[in-house]
Specification:
Blueprint lengths: L1 H32 L6 H14 L4 E7 L7 E8 L2 E8 L5 E4 L2 E4 L2 E2 L1 H18 L9 E7 L5 E4 L2 E5 H9 L7 H14 L38 H21 L12 H8 L6 E4 L6 H15 L3 E6 L4 H12 L7 E5 H11 L8 H16 L4 H4 L3 H13 L6 H5 L12 H20 L5 H14 L6 E6 L7 H11 L6 E4 L25 E3 L2 E2 L4 H11 L4 E2 L5 E2 L6 E2 L5 E7 L2 H15 L7 E5 L2 H14 L3 E3 L11 E5 L8 E6 L16 E4 L5 E4 L18 H19 L2 E10 L1 H6 L1
Parallel strand pairs: 3-7, 7-9, 10-14, 10-15, 11-12, 11-13, 13-14, 16-19, 20-27, 21-23, 21-24, 22-23, 24-27
Antiparallel strand pairs: 1-2, 2-3, 4-5, 5-6, 8-9, 17-18, 25-26
Helix pairs in contact: 1-2, 1-6, 2-4, 4-6, 7-8, 10-16, 11-15, 16-17, 18-21
The structure holds adenosine-5'-triphosphate.
């Protein structure tokens, strides 16, 4: 009964909508008939656009092009869907768009595209001070008397029938007040011609309305002599569909259209060589990088490569770009660095065999033979530290000779290794390489080194006009060298985006080590946090306040950074439980208390993969829908996201829950043992005392060297800081009072 009732309500609503659209289109057609100087085809285009003006859009017709003597802009249209710079073509011959060329019959008309792009740029510049990103200003060519739907460069090409529905279906970008402000601004920048052909006063509809287009070139129904009412019937159906499509889709997020004018300036900047954008968490670095990618794609015909270290982030960022700049989305390639390198090697026919598991196993064997019996075990008996030393320091930096390693200043590594230690590390490294090669497998570092060697040996013509690396602090030196090799020092070629304070992997590098110079205006710092409510940012900064860090540009920065806050308030909840079981109950209670509606905007973030699996099981048992961050692609999904701190990099959520969040203890003497207890449901809840690294699932509790313990503690504080700064509105911090759980 209820379902039937709502279906009938929907049908009534659809009929009301249809009546409204029919009236709006009929009125627009009557008004368009008064455009005496226009051809019939142009009037039909105008009717479609005038119909939009009855739905909150503003249309400016026949405007002067500033800076030119005689050139004009056919139309500027501003509405919920953004700003459109419109050129109307009333060609006798049929338009075509193939192989990158615009044609009218057999004639090339590429100059028309160039002209439209040039005037669109003028509009972009004019709107930049209002904070409008170039992605929201779109060039549109409309063919009177034609049916057409295509794209060339970034220019949308539409026929007169397609234009109304296409614009109506655009997702909402601008509110009514902004539409007004932008249109007012454009009216000043693009002044009207005197004697513009839109009459001020309504006049009697002309007798010839509805006649076939005078150019006779139309092949579509539009030029076939339909009456206005027939046209209305035809158009109404597609307009209705488009309006319903648009209503179904949520508005485009504000940051996809508006930026701070300083951000727009970075997006549009001309850099003479490699550049870097840095800044604390949440200051809009990724937002700038995505707009920059779209902007460069709009400016060039080449492809843009956008890479990160994390494998899940490219999917999310690709979804964002498709939403904010669909016209250029297919020219921006989102990839994790390793997946890109493997594709590159395959394309170049370079044999490779990546096998993480067998490589791990090769290291374990090397450790047993060469590491455990050496001086290294006295410094840190846990092989993980030494595995990281090989991964992040030796192979990550592409070091192939001992002497280079012997004198290396090891970034972000605290333990002072004397020569005998370094000799022992080198012996371990050589043994690992020997075993790995014997097994015929490559590790992740090998993939990047092979790709770098190939890129340098056969540079060829880069398929990329530009390369953008996000979260660059997590790449290795070899990784950054590889990206640099793709575009070199070309103007606007390489953009590195990231924040040294958020480095969640050991080791590190300086850009100068990679031969990359970003001095002067090519190194830009963002300082305004747009993401985190103040309480959350303060709590997160307190965690790393005492941890000064080396940035990749070689400067040393204090942990407590100067950040301008835009978002006050927020909620930080600390929950301390007596046992792991009580802790997990508290997490479920907190999730339930905030309510089901909040779950799609919530994330439970965990220190390790093992803990992630534990909390996924917990939510599954509690009947709370969840989605693994490994699979999340940025599209709305009605489930709580669950994943590790590392998988959450670059992402954000309204509500973040960090169960068992305490960072690793700072001193070896207080290193906590692995704790295990049995919950009331009989489930074993095992929690390692520190966040295990990706290279080992075992948690190390025995630490020999104080500096190594301090380094580990610092890294785990950084990881916690990154996880905390994923929260926009609320942050839940759960912990177990260890003393209590140990005796239970
Ligand atoms: N100009 C702006 N106006 C309003 N919100 C903005 C603006 N710029 C960015 N934001 C918002 O700030 C949030 C953080 O942006 P972004 O993810 O780009 O920051 P980030 O510096 O890359 O963060 P992190 O380093 O922590 O990953 C985004 O959700 C976006 O909504």
């Amino acid at each position: 009964m209820e379902a039937g009732g709502s279906a009938s309500n929907r049908a009534q609503e659809a009929r009301r909508h249809e009546r409204e659209l029919r009236e709006q289109l009929r009125a627009a057609q009557q008004e368009a008939r008064r455009w005496e100087a226009a051809s019939e085809g142009e009037r039909k285009v105008a009717a479609q656009l005038l119909m939009l003006t009855r739905r909150g859009w503003r249309l400016l017709v026949d405007r002067r092009w500033p800076g030119t003597r005689a050139a004009n802009v056919d139309m500027l249209l501003v509405g919920p869907g953004g700003v459109f710079v419109i050129d109307v073509k009333n060609w006798r011959a049929a338009p075509g768009a193939a192989d990158g060329h615009l044609t009218a019959g057999r004639q090339r008309r590429d100059g028309e595209i160039g002209k439209l792009l040039a005037v669109t740029r003028v509009a972009e510049v004019a709107l930049a001070p209002l904070g409008l990103s170039p992605v929201a200003v779109q060039p549109l060519m409309v063919f009177a008397g034609r049916s057409f739907d295509g794209t060339l460069d970034r220019v949308r090409l539409l026929g007169e029938r397609e234009v109304g529905p296409a614009l109506l279906a655009e997702r909402t970008r601008l509110g009514a007040a902004m539409v007004c402000a932008i249109a007012d601004h454009l009216e000043v920048v693009f002044p009207a011609y005197e004697g513009s052909y839109v009459p001020e006063e309504p006049s009697v509809p002309s007798a010839d309305s509805g006649r076939p287009a005078p150019d006779g070139g139309g092949t579509s129904d539009a030029a076939s002599g339909d009456t206005a009412d027939d046209n209305a019937l035809f158009d109404i159906a597609s307009l209705c569909d488009a309006a319903m499509d648009a209503a179904r889709r949520a508005p485009v997020e504000r940051w996809m259209t508006f930026l701070h004018p300083d951000q727009v300036a970075l997006v549009r900047r001309n850099w003479s060589g490699p550049a870097r954008v840095s800044g604390p968490a949440g200051t809009g670095k990724t937002v700038v990088a995505l707009h920059r990618a779209a902007h460069l794609a709009q400016r060039t015909t080449g492809r843009i490569l956008y890479v990160t270290f994390a494998s899940n982030l490219p999917r999310v960022q690709g979804t964002f770009l498709r939403t904010m700049a669909p016209a250029v989305a297919d020219r921006v390639e989102f990839r994790s660095l390793h997946s890109w390198a493997r594709k590159f090697l395959a394309e170049r026919g370079i044999p490779h065999r990546l096998h993480g598991g067998r490589s791990e196993d090769a290291f374990s064997r090397a450790w047993v033979r060469c590491g455990r019996p050496s001086v290294l075990a006295a410094l840190d008996p846990c092989p993980r530290y030494w595995h990281e030393e090989i991964d992040c320091v030796i192979k990550g930096r592409g070091i192939t000779g001992f002497e280079e390693y012997a004198t290396l200043r090891r970034q972000r590594r605290r333990a002072a290794l004397r020569r005998p230690h370094r000799e022992a590390v080198w012996a371990l490294y050589e043994e690992y390489e020997r075993v790995r090669r014997a097994r015929g497998v490559h590790d992740f570092n090998d993939i990047l080194s092979l790709a770098l060697a190939e890129a340098r040996a056969r540079p060829g013509r880069s398929p990329y006009a530009a390369v953008i690396a996000d979260e660059v602090q997590d790449l290795t030196l070899v990784g950054v060298r590889l990206l640099h090799a793709l575009v070199g020092d070309a103007p606007n070629g390489l953009l590195l985006v990231g924040d040294g304070q958020q480095a969640v992997y050991p080791g590190g590098f300086r850009l100068s080590d990679a031969g990359i110079d970003v001095r002067g205006d090519r190194g830009q710092v963002l300082r305004t946090n747009y993401r985190n409510a103040q309480q959350i940012l303060d709590a997160a900064l307190a965690v790393v306040a005492d941890d000064a860090f080396d940035d990749i540009d070689g400067t040393r920065l204090a942990g407590l950074r100067d950040v301008d806050r835009t978002y006050h308030g927020g909620q930080v909840t600390r929950s301390v439980s007596g046992t792991p079981a009580e802790h997990d109950d508290a997490l479920l209670a907190a999730l339930r208390a905030r309510g089901e509606a909040s779950w799609p905007d919530s994330a439970v973030l965990c220190r390790s993969r093992r803990e992630t699996a534990h909390y996924q099981r917990l939510l599954a048992r509690a009947g709370i829908p969840f989605c693994s961050l490994e699979r999340y692609d940025g599209r709305p999904v009605a489930a709580v996201k669950v994943g590790s701190y590392r998988r959450a990099k670059g992402l954000e959520f309204k509500h973040v829950y960090l169960p068992d969040h305490e960072p690793a203890p700072a001193m070896p003497s207080v290193a906590a043992p692995v704790t295990a207890s049995v919950t009331s449901s009989g489930m074993s809840a095992v929690r390692p005392s520190a966040a295990p690294s990706a290279t080992s699932t075992r948690a190390c509790t025995v630490v020999g060297d104080e500096d190594i313990a301090l380094e580990r503690a610092e890294l785990s504080r950084t990881q916690l800081f990154v996880a905390m700064t994923r929260a926009r509105d609320s942050l839940w911090l759960g912990s177990v009072a260890r003393g209590l759980s140990d005796v239970s």
